[in-house]
Specification:
The protein is an alpha/beta fold and 354 residues long. A seven-stranded parallel β-sheet has the order 3-2-1-4-5-6-7, with helices on both faces. A six-stranded parallel β-sheet has the order 10-9-8-11-12-13, with helices on both faces. Strand 1, helix 1 and strand 2 form a beta-alpha-beta unit. Helix 11 packs across helix 14. The protein is globular, with a radius of gyration of 21 Å. The model has no long low-confidence stretch (mean pLDDT 93).
Length: 354
Amino acid sequence: MNILIVSKHFSPGFIGHMKAWYKMCEECGYQTELYFDSQYEKFFDRNEYNYTTDMVNVENYHPDIAVVQNTGFENVELFKWCEKHNCKIFYILHEPYMGIKELMKDGNYFIKQAVACVLNVWLCAKATRVVLCSKYAEENCKRYMKGAYRKAVFLPLLFLDDYDEKVCTYREYFSMIGTYAEPHGSDIFIKYIREAYESGSKQKFQIATRSNISDMIADQIYKKMQDEGQLLVQQGRPLTEEEMSAAYRRSLATWNGYRRSTQSGVLPNAFMQGTPVIATRLGSFEEFVEPGNTGVFIDDFGCNTITNAIKNIEATGKVMNEKCRSFFLTHFYYRNQLDAFKKIVEKVEKEEMK
């Protein structure tokens, strides 16, 4: 059985997913190779991962299954090739269509998301299996994408475990980590940290993002916060896995105060590093956030509401850190999904034999 892990559309958020899927397939006993955009190369060691950026090599590899990680028009030609060469497609659908009202919450990203939804309909129609990563995604797929739902299987977002228990880092920042986006409430976080600072809060804040947010923090107040050591900013470039892990480990809590979400990669990465989240009650958050154990819910974006949530997490000490780690290992660590993945593959093989 030859399995190809694919991400032809570059997005740093999928580096960890691809590595976890690669290890899972390999440990299940399948021959495994990665096929991705050349921008991913610097993040993968050839001594540990077999990969290619050339379709000619894919053709010589003769994959039986292609596991496609993310959407993008780059997938169209690959899907056509798979159909022609009897290669099964497992398409991971991260964002099922959720209705026009939900898409409207994306603000400036509305058109981009609407186009992605249309593309997803075509990709799901061509796929052998559609992989969904949360109950919330399943519910929306069942409601709005019935054709895709008939092919659906469930596997959570998968990750390696990069936690190093020997690294002791003082947790002092309330952090926004990941891509800047209106659906993620990134503007709300940036507004909040200013309000908190101007009200006299001594809480330290951190922003770690590949997005260029220079315009969002151009006001002198943010420069003053940085000069005084109350705001740490890494932005405008893809951060290494080591930098991202360190950002989570420095955090007493991370921001998941989203306006709209199906699932969040920030949440499992935070839990991996033992970091609780502050989240809104939407998407899959109520599946994964256990109030008082792995995070705190907020019902509005008021300054006092967010500040009180931070204080509630601080008051728990290390208890929540340990519970976050436990939740990550149970739900998102790839080694706990080996049997589930084998069953999916075996069922597809049996259907092929009929």
